[in-house]
Amino acid sequence: MIDIVIPGEAGKLHAVYHKSNIPSAPLAVVLSGNPRQKYHMNDRVSYAMFRAFMDIGFSVLRFNYRGVNDSEGAIGTTSENMLDIATVIDWIQNRNEDSDKIWLAGNQLGAWYVLQVMMRRPEISGFALVSPDPSVSDFAFLSPRPNRGLLLQGGAESEDAKAFATHLTQILKKQAQIDLETIRIKNSDAMYSQPVDLRQMYNDLKAYVGRENEDSKLL
Asked: How far, CA to CA in Å, does 211 sit from each of 5, 20, 149, 217?
């Protein structure tokens, strides 16, 4: 993996990129949580998601939104962060023209960004949501987009967070025709604070992506 700089609307975006030695390998972009809550591309959850894709042969990229650590500019709004996401997706696709699959994985607020990007970019092949932020409840952006994906959550997250995940699953099925497979990691909190919990999250994500990527029915 290498550190790279990607030209963005507000200046340079700092990213880490791993390129598979297989030219047609599938692609993945990892979206970290809310930068105003100190999430960034090198936090433990973002790194674990990145490694899950890397270790099954994907070309994968993680990055910091504008205004975060070495990315230039001021911390952005949702619409500005979405522009940064579009920039990095374009970057990885332009450098991997032989690849015909791209996945997204997001943690916390990044999970919401995953869903919004899917509504805008029909080429997204698959996705994973890791402990979505339960304080976000605007579903107005959803439209029919038949697909399936994974929701990972800590079994020790609050009852409100778990109820919200169930509600999200129902909303996605009803409004967007998206099926979610939910895995709850026993005793884990939303930060996957214990090494055993982080390892289990990594293993579950890796297993799901590996299985779905091989499925010819994947949209």
From this structure: 32, 18, 11, 11
**181 DSSP β-pair partners:** 150
Q: Has residue 149 got a pLDDT over 60?
A: yes
Gap between the Cα atoms of 96 and 27, Å rounded: 8
Contacts of 107 (CB under 8 A, 6+ apart): 31, 32, 33, 39, 43, 45, 46, 49, 130, 131
Q: Which pLDDT belongs to residue 218? A: 40
DSSP type of residue 157: S
* Residue 15 CB contacts under 8 Å (≥ 6 apart), including other chains: 3, 4, 5, 6, 41, 61, 62, 63, 64, 88
Residue 210: how many other CB atoms lie within 10 Å? 15
**Per-residue confidence at 219, pLDDT binned at 50, 70, 90?**
very low
Whether residue 126 contacts residue 147, with contact meaning beta carbons closer than 8 Å, is answered with yes
pLDDT value for 86? 97
Pure H helices in 105-185: 109-120, 159-171
Residue pair 150/183 in contact by the 8 Å Cβ criterion: yes
